[in-house]
Amino acid sequence: MPDASDDPGATARSGGTLRPGGGRSALLWGAVGVLVYLVLLLGYEAVVAPIPVGPGAKLAVAVAAGVVPAAVAFRFEGRLAGKGRS
User: Fold this and answer.
1) Sign (positive or negative) of CA dihedral 62, 65, 68, 74
2) Do the Cβ atoms of 26 and 80 come closer than 8 Å?
3) What are the residue boundaries of the structural domains of the chain, listed by start?
4) What span, in angstroms and rounded, lies between the C-alpha atoms of 41 and 32?
5) DSSP bridge partners of 18
6) CA dihedral (10, 15, 21, 27) positive or negative
7) Are 7 and 84 in contact (CB under 8 A)?
8) Separation of CA 19 from chain center
């Protein structure tokens, strides 16, 4: 029976331990979340109207828009890879 570590598409998490490079895709999904939010924010403010909140609030939402997809990707990467969906 082959070991999961022999599989090049092995999951990032196995038995609660993080494999080397396993969190990289989660960080990339977090970066995608931040960039998508910022692009949508800038587009809305350029086309419709400025949003009446300060830059601190916009930054807080941008951080949340990055942390949530990163956490979800990190948590479920093993399930998706195990089912051949990643």
Assistant:
1) negative
2) no
3) 22-82
4) 14
5) 13
6) positive
7) no
8) 17
At 20 the pLDDT is 52
Sign of CA dihedral 4, 6, 12, 18: positive
Q: What is the pLDDT of residues 6-36, one digit of tens each?
A: 555 554 445 455 555 568 888 999 999 999 9
pTM: 0.66
What does the DSSP 8-state code read for residue 52?
Answer: S
Residue 13 pairs with which residues in a beta bridge? 18
Distance of CA 62 to the CA centre of its chain: 12
Are the beta carbons of 86 and 77 closer than 8 angstroms? yes
